[in-house]
């Protein structure tokens, strides 16, 4: 890490890398490794892997956590449920933080107006009172 800028440095090149880029590069292999931990025989390794997968927030982990929801062990069921909730909460937060690229698109405005008109009409096509 560069002491002056606080940015991560590539090992082979002196060009600075942003922390976000470094985390993105590191996340996929980390999640893959943690997913492999869900198959271990040791219960506590599986619990730790499930917990860390929840913290990582990668939606790919959900399909691997689902089988633990019906595991015989209550601790594994609980931690996998919590991990899945964490991942889903992060996905919701990300989607809410992203700006709607079509918020003012003409087609969207026309569709919203048509839906409003349709809701205001009765069964016979007459306006509701």
Task: Describe this entry's structure for a reader.
This protein has a single domain (8-120), classed as Leucine-rich Repeat Variant. The chain has a two-stranded antiparallel sheet. The protein has 5 helices and 2 strands. The protein is flat, with a radius of gyration of 23 Å. The chain has 129 residues and is mainly α. Helix 1 runs antiparallel to helix 2. The model has no long low-confidence stretch (mean pLDDT 80). It has helices spanning 19-37, 43-56, 62-65, 74-97, 106-120; strands spanning 8-9, 16-17.
Largest beta-sheet details: 2 strands, antiparallel
Strand content range: under 5%
Distance between the termini: 68 Å
SS element count, helices: 5
| CATH evolutionary superfamily | Leucine-rich Repeat Variant
Report the uncertain regions.
none
Per CATH, which architecture? Alpha Horseshoe
Overall structural class, as computed from helix and strand content, comes to: mainly alpha
What is the approximate shape? flat
Identify the strand order in the major beta sheet: 1-2
